[in-house]
């Protein structure tokens, strides 16, 4: 991985911070999230996913692509470690509408400890703030305010924490995650499942999403949705317009087979 080329691509000033800190983490996190979209286009196109750092570097920097959680957080972990941080991959389970759960451990999140505090620095989830979230006790009032809403990360016990977003006057759990550090190969089963199993959301549906200065842009096989504060603009997706939307909103230049005529 060529750090200089990566930082040029992310528009990161390599001289801005000389050592790990919360301010540095937030700077790197924001630049990454505003540059690299979350996307599952390779899965949709039947292209095998590699979680080797050099392969992800090639995809993101040289081909100006994004990826899903296993690619994004593994790669961001490698970058943070090159900048002197400690970063731990952890196993997470998505909470779905109606009280359901995803396949256990199907999401990979990222924790960065700084000065005795664990911060969630997850660049591979489709709805999180563009700053790190301290994991806090449940009775704490510390929250992260973002253009897309209010968020918090809370300890459930010594082994588990929740990521939550304020919705409809209550805290809604986005996912639960274990605190135990994991190796990338601990996710091998879920990486395979989310590439080929017809029951996987990533196999069933296209998802491209990215935080923006105005809020968030999200593309499915049916619509492009631009979320601006509480307002949503929706545009129908067709074989004629999807490449333009990909380029304008996500800086992606790639064919999506299911949207071709």
UniProtKB/TrEMBL annotation:
GO terms for molecular function: acetyltransferase activity. Keywords: Transferase. The keyword RNA-binding does not apply. It comes from the Bacteria. InterPro entries: Arylamine_N-AcTrfase, Arylamine_NAT_domain_sf, Papain-like_cys_pep_sf. Gene3D superfamilies: 3.30.2140.20. It holds the Pfam family Acetyltransf_2. Belongs to the arylamine N-acetyltransferase family. This is Arylamine N-acetyltransferase. It comes from Staphylococcus devriesei. The lineage of its organism: Bacteria, Bacillati, Bacillota, Bacilli, Bacillales.
């Amino acid at each position: 991985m060529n750090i200089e080329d990566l930082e040029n691509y992310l528009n990161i000033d390599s001289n801005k911070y000389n050592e790990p800190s919360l301010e540095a983490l937030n700077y790197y996190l924001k630049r990454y999230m505003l540059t690299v979209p979350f996307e599952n286009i390779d899965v949709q196109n039947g292209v095998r996913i590699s979680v080797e750092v050099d392969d992800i570097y090639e995809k993101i920097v040289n081909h100006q692509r994004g990826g899903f959680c296993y690619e994004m957080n593994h790669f961001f972990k490698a970058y943070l470690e090159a900048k002197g941080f400690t970063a731990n991959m952890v196993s997470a389970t998505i909470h779905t509408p109606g009280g359901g759960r995803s396949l256990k451990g199907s999401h990979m999140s990222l924790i960065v400890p700084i000065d005795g505090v664990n911060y969630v620095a997850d660049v591979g989830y489709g709805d999180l703030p563009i700053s790190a979230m301290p994991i806090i006790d449940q009775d704490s009032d510390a929250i992260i305010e973002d253009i897309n809403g209010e968020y918090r990360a809370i300890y459930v016990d010594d082994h588990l924490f929740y990521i939550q977003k304020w919705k409809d006057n209550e805290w809604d759990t986005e996912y639960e995650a274990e605190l135990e550090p994991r190796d990338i190969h601990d996710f091998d089963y879920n990486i395979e499942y989310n590439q080929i199993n017809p029951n996987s959301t990533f196999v069933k549906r296209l998802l491209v999403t990215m935080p923006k200065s105005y809020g968030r842009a999200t593309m499915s096989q049916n619509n492009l949705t631009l979320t601006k504060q509480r307002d949503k603009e929706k545009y129908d997706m067709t074989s004629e317009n999807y490449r333009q939307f990909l380029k304008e909103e996500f800086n992606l230049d790639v064919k999506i087979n299911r949207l071709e005529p």
